[in-house]
Write a structure and sequence with these properties.
two-stranded antiparallel ribbon; single chain; mainly beta; 71 residues; 4 strands; 7% helix
Amino acid sequence: MIWPEFEDENGNLILDKSVPVNRIGTARMWIINKDYIDYHKNKIKVGTKGYFKEGSHSTGECEVIELLNIG
């Protein structure tokens, strides 16, 4: 699982869960289980596209714009 932390228009994390996330913006993404870092390291790169999912429903699209600290 890769977990998002959404940012506001100034690049600050949105910590207040009552604040809505913008339709277009950025998020910091974290690989939650360290056992999967090597798996993702061999697949993810700048430009990789994916989807935010809630169960079987896609709730948004995403694209990797930068990689930091991936092993």
